[in-house]
Amino acid sequence: MKKLMSGNEAIAYGAYLSGVKVGSAYPGTPSTEIMENFVKYPGVYTEWAPNEKVALDVGVGSAYAGTRTMVTMKHVGLNVAADPLFYVSYTGSNGGLVIINADDPGMHSSQNEQDNRNYAKFAKVPMLEPADSEEAKQYVGVALEISETYDTPVILRTTTRISHSKSAVEVEPAPPVVEKTALPAYQRNPGKYVMVPANARRRHPVVEERQNRLTQYAENSPLNRIEPGDDGIGIITAGIAYQYAREVFPTASFLKLGLVHPLPDQLIRDFAGQVRELIVIEELEPFIEEHVKLMGIPVRGKEIFPIIDEFSPQVVRECAIAAGLIEADPVLSDTPATQLDLPVRPPMLCPGCGHRGVFYTLKQLDVLVLGDIGCYTLGAGPPLAAMHTTGCMGAGIGVAHGIDKAGVSDRYVAVIGDSTFFHSGINPLINVLYNQGTTTTILLDNRVTAMTGHQMHPGSGRTLQNKETIEVNVSALARGIGYEKVDEVSPYDLEKLSAVIEDHLESKIPSLIVVKHPCVLYTRERHPVPVVDPDTCINCGTCLDLGCSPLTQEEDNISINPMLCNGCGMCAQVCPTGAIQTDQTSS
Amino acid sequence: MKKIDFLMAGVGGQGTILASDILVEVGLQMGYDAKKSEVHGMSQRGGTVESHVRWGEKVYSPVVEKGQADYLIGFEMLEAARWTSYLNSTSAVIVNRFRIPPPAVNLGQKAYPSEQELEDYINTRAGQLQWVEGTAIAKDLGNPAMAGVVLLGALFARVGGTESAWLNVIEQLVPQKFVELNKQAFKKGQEL
Asked: What is the SS3 string spanning A89-157?
């Protein structure tokens, strides 16, 4: 029987079928749904870790103990988890350890489009790359076998189009339930697992020797296969690019790689010998192409296909036509439609979102805002336009402190979300205090990781397995490390919010403002829709500065779309003529 | 088995993804190889959502190629027009007559194109265009969120297949307590 699954669902299913018992992750698009699906299977332990480094350390411990383990993250998450990746490459994993890494070519939901195949080469660990959901399912099991056979962590790389596309997956019989008898004792082996220099020096040759054995494996592995076609063009490809290439070059010969590191030299040589012209079709970096070139084999890749952005069938086709590899199809190269100005539709803060109150206030106060990554990054867009830097999670507080120490005259604040505060915001908060900075940090605390679809975090009071747990109190945490000025305020009381921010900006000590209200999209909190009195409304547009989608400028006055409005009443607070009336008491 | 490529376009929160989940499953039930692709993450925040669904003997790419869509199903008028480049002279377009003004329109900086302008623009490439009162019909039935299922009914009238396959999938994928209403929405769409 076949079942449609996204790549992420298939990975979770594959992990279950392969006996993975422990999973740890930090949510990040496009990887998030893997752990959300894995948690549904019987007999598995899963958790949201506060960040990817913690998740991978947890995974390492579980694997050291001999348990099959999966750790999942998005591509930039592996930057955070790079430290454990490199040590576990040296120590080996003992039990099966698969790291699912989801790249995001095209940056649908990311700050860069780094190609994490380079991490496999850099850390000297094998990397598998599935091209559809069925392969995603199967490759998890193969990755775990490689991990155990070669005593190495294995990375399984997806891209957004693999993670979020659905295709048919063969349903397998459920794995047998193994009753635990006695708990195994941890096998102590400090020479292998304590990476002091003396031990690490002994482990490095083991890593090099492992690479050689893995290269041999790559030559004969069914993960890499030649699909014979005509002897003109031969295409080396992997992942989603394989699917696009198959559409555009239906009769070509293919070397389809499932193991993208290490690469099979002899297989590549044999394939090159079977065709007249060798082409590599790969998204992002010329990872395979450079390897083939270093082997001295003539090949073309990035001179034909772009290094920037994700591919699509038409990108591959247009580039192939331009390079003279295929003929243009008259139907597809049809004349374009006449032009019509279609206003764009950028994502916005949801109607009723509390973050809106903070950014509206910060804009009114005209302060420099050093930001972070989450829903609230949407505060950078017009009309709020009240965020001036965004780099990575946890960055804003450190950047603010640097601006402070550089001695600029602007008033400034750091803004961070609650999930990213737990991710990597606590260290820079300590740094401000320790190094006698004066930064005011505004913590946008909505008690959930909202951007990626409402995952739990240490402040949510529930675990991934939906168990009740401690709710970390961020105000108490800040006071505990030595912050003397800590205030909590609602984002919906604009007057008070503005006064508190002003007060903190005036103070010359490091301070924290916790702007606290649960995410209304998550709690589904709603209030009656405010009413606009068309006689009082002077159509001044002040409320439109909130950037709230239900508010629309009509010819004579403002209207509120009741289907979209959440009834938060911020528009009524900012209306200078009192034309917008709320009935907050009847909520 | 001839390939059929569908593109569904709407605004976050309109149910585009549920409708595409139904459509790809119907394809599989009818014996096709079927794939679908969309990008989520930011979609809940009122941004553009586009979902690709492909049926065929053997489907490689989960993404429809420009100029290749056999059907474009627009959940919102402006969003339907945005994907015109995916159409060709034999494509059929079904559009929900429903507007959600984007921010620039709310702010009075840009005009929302008129229905005639959108129709003319889509018709520069499409073979056929059908306006559907999806949201209005769904609202009459008690829930405007079922507009997508009305559109699927209108699509079924064109694509064909066994009605029971479509209805079974709807039954599997919509929330239990709304199954009967959704079936009614599907019938309404079919009769248009």
From this structure: HHHCCCCCEEEEEEECCCCCCCCCCCCCHHHHHHHCCCEECCCCHHHHHHHHHHHHHHHHHHCCCEEEE
Provide the 8-state DSSP code for B144: G
Å from B11 to nearest chain A CA?
9
Token pair, residue A427, equals 């260290």
**Which of A33, A38, A31 lies closest to A14 in space, CA to CA?**
A38
Residues of chain A with C-beta less than 8 angstroms from the C-beta of B42:
108-109, 347
Q: Report whether A413 contacts A441 (CB < 8 A).
A: yes
Nearest residue of B to residue A561, measured between CA atoms: B100
- Please report, for residues B54, B95, B185, the alpha-carbon distance to residue B155 in angstroms, rounded to integers and kept in the order given: 14, 10, 12
Each residue's pLDDT tens digit, A189-225: 999 999 999 999 999 999 999 999 999 999 999 999 9
| Overall number of domains in chain B | 1
User: Is B47's CB within 8 Å of A347's CB?
Assistant: yes
Question: pLDDT of A310-368, one tens digit each?
Answer: 999 999 999 999 999 999 877 665 555 578 999 998 888 999 999 999 999 999 999 99
**B172: domain range?**
4-191
> Which two three-digit tokens encode residue B13?
């929160």
Report how far residue A201's alpha carbon sits from residue A208's, in angstroms, rounded to the nearest whole number: 12
Helices and strands of chain B, counted as H and E runs: 8, 6
Evaluate whether ipTM surpasses 0.90. yes
* CATH code, B93: 3.40.920.10
Phi, psi of B53 (to 5 degrees): -130, 130
Q: What is the DSSP string of A21-38?
A: -EEEE---TTTTHHHHHH
Report the distance separating Cα B129 and Cα B152, nearest Å: 15
On the CB side of A366, CA atoms within 13 Å amount to 2
Residue A159 CB contacts under 8 Å (≥ 6 apart), including other chains: A30, A102, A103, A104, A105, A239, A240, A283, A310
Task: Tell me whether B5 touches chain A (CB under 8 Å).
Answer: no
Contact B62 A313 (CB under 8 A): no
Q: Could you write out the DSSP letters of every residue in B152-171?
A: HHHHHHHH-S-HHHHHHHHH
Please judge whether A165 and B88 are an interchain contact, meaning their C-beta atoms are less than 8 angstroms apart. no
Return the ∠ at Cα A480 (arms to A475 and A481), rounded to 5°: 105
